[in-house]
Amino acid sequence: MSFLNDKVAIITGDAQGIGTAIAEALVEAGAEVVLADIDDSPGRAWAERMGTAALYVHAGFSHEEQIREVITKAVEAFGGVDILVNIVVNPIGVEMTASPEAWLVSYATNVIGPALLIQAIRPVMQRRGRGVIILGSEER
Q1: Strand pairing partners for 137?
Q2: What does each C-alpha distance from 79 to 9, 97, 115 come to in angstroms?
Q3: Measured at the alpha carbon of residue 138, what is the angle toward residues 133 and 140, in degrees to the nearest 5?
Q4: Which one of 12, 47, 79, 84 has the fewest CB atoms closer than 10 angstroms to its CB?
């Protein structure tokens, strides 16, 4: 028996890098994992490789309704959520010449999105009586 049996994790972002590496490690440790990103092709391929312990959901994390959909699908598929790993990917990095619109998208993705995600997932974790939230970043 693995130490993460009966645990459910949501990994947000980076369906082809650190996000999938973390997701694979969690599956190997016994967790069921929902990987959510806007990059569908690698996300779907990852879920197919992982089998029944994995689910891919398309979601952009600056959109509250998509955040709620990811959590709902995790609960429907696996019964709840115990672990959240939010991989924030700044789409413009430190590009000082970026447009104001690009900065707003970056702010929505990297600041507002994680806050909305934590707000939405908190009651789900409270119902299970446990939860771990990890906020990270991967600059591209």
Answers
A1: 88
A2: 11, 45, 23
A3: 160
A4: 79
Q: Tell me the chain's radius of gyration from C-alpha atoms.
A: 15
User: What pLDDT, in 10s, does the model give residues 59-117?
Assistant: 988 889 999 999 999 999 999 999 999 986 666 655 778 888 888 888 888 888 899 99
DSSP states of 51-67: GGGEEEEE--TT-HHHH
Q: Which domains does the chain have, with CATH numbers?
A: 8-137 (3.40.50.720)
Q: Are 2 and 30 in contact, with CB atoms under 8 Å apart?
A: yes
Count of all residues that appear for the chain in the document:
140
Residue with tokens 């699908």, as numbered in its chain = 73
With a CB cutoff of 8 Å and minimum separation 6, the contacts of 83 are 7, 8, 9, 10, 26, 31, 131, 132, 133, 134
Point out which residues pair with 10 in neighbouring strands. 34, 84
Q: Which of 77, 76, 85, 75 minimizes the C-alpha distance to 127?
A: 75
* Backbone phi and psi for residue 108, each to the nearest 5 degrees, phi listed first: -60, -40
Per-residue pLDDT, 19: 87
User: Residue 121 pLDDT more than 80?
Assistant: yes
